[in-house]
Prior knowledge:
The complex is a heterodimer of chains A (about 180) and B (about 325).
Chain A: H1 4-24, H2 32-45, E1 62-70, E2 75-79, H3 86-97, H4 119-139, E3 143-154, H5 158-162, E4 168-178
Antiparallel strand pairs in A: 1-2, 1-3, 3-4
Chain B: H1 2-17, H2 23-43, H3 47-51, H4 59-65, H5 73-81, H6 87-107, H7 111-128, H8 135-149, H9 158-163, H10 171-195, H11 199-203, H12 205-212, H13 228-243, H14 245-248, H15 252-272, H16 276-291, H17 304-308
Helix pairs in contact in B: 2-6, 2-8, 2-16, 6-7, 7-8, 8-16, 10-13, 10-16, 12-13, 15-16
Amino acid sequence: MNTSKQKLFLGLVAFHLALVILGAFQVPLSNEVGDYFYQMYGKITGASSGYGFFAPGVGTQLRASFEVHDTKGTITKVPLEQGRNREADLRIGNIVGWFWKDTLGGDAPESGTEKGATSKRRDIQRSMTASWAGKIFGRYPETKSVVVILEEYQMPSMDEYRKGERPYWTKYYRAKFEKKSGT
Amino acid sequence: MKRWLSNVGPAISKFFFAPASPRPLAVLRITVAATLLLQAILIAPEFFDFFGTNGVLQESLSKYFSEPGTPRMGAVVTFLAKYGFSERTVMAAAGSLYLISLIMLTVGAFTGLSSVVTWFLHWVFMSSSYTTNYGADVFAHIFLFYLMVVPCGAAFSVDNWRKGLPEMASWQARLGLRLVQFHLCIMYLASAVEKWPGPQWHDGEVMWRALNLPVYLQFDFTWLAQYPWLCKLMAWESLAVEGLYFIFIWPKLTRKLWVYLVVALHLGIALFLGLHIFGIIMAALTWSVYGWSATPQKVSQKSEEQQTGWAPQPLGSPS
Lengths: 183, 319
């Protein structure tokens, strides 16, 4: 025989797990109010999380590097990652990865390219690279200008690799930022 | 039929409420908190770059990308600035408090309070640097929430030692354990279902790409191109371990094997893809709640019989 307290807690567990199932299988709620509360509950508990890691497959990678032009005319190429440890560098890579996400804002009309992207998307991307360039200006005070270079990794399939193709980086985006005089 | 039905109720009741040892939940607490402590130490040198208003992403952008309605560091900084606190002071205080709460949670000191503080600060940091997040953070958030509501401090804890309490089995530990166990089953099934339509998972290309992309590259695995069957085998093995988890993790006969397979899978991810924190935390989840016996050592003196209908004796219940 179960106490009413046990029944109440079992009900709460069942309710929570039902929401976990909705989140895990990305089942949308048709009721607007219900969806609002579900989203809020999901943010607090993590119940609305999806688990599609490496699904449906592994894509490619975007990397950011910076050409640092100093006042003496020297050009140095540096990464955004500081190389302190794997966890920190992984997180920097995640930030860079947001640059080409569909969920960035605005539209990316052609998958895998930025051709014809809306002005909103371009503005956000420009702001992102400006923010990264600002970090580089901070790290290297003698810098006159910074060129942000984003490159996409072209990965051959196993079959292509056996036939002699090799991976390489292609230019994806480039932007130059000058230090304002007096700053 | 009637007799069968009359047996179902008590069996379900036993499955969810038979007093369980708090040890699996305590191990969950220790492993999750200790892994997050390690993560915090690794991130600490970049703390202001990730979470500060003048970080790698400036505050306006960071706010734009964050989930609406979640607590953010920027809001706390702005609020406390009115009272003369600098951003660095506020952030250093929040970061220090997070470290202290993680240490307390790991050792089980003031477990109730430290679990709440840890969960909340982890959420704040996660929301404040949304673009840096990945799977490890998602799972940490989920399981830190569970640590607040299950009796994870009832074993292997300073609290027990301080109060002179022995480990007590309880129905709360059993129900909490079931909650976490079911969540893991749902998670692995959903993960396999999402992977299944991907052609890369069928021909093994997913392993080739993951092991050779610069972001995950730890060792030279280009030789795998000569052995596509090996990639295919690894991909199908991962799908099988995840997709059949909810079946084979329950029977005593297969449980140990599945725990080993899951732990090996995640330690493999940690080692060969360099996702150290993710791999450790995922391996720890299954290892703690399925790898540790929940068979009670001692049952509470507070007449468990009255609460559950079972006499306080060692139980051979499903653990």
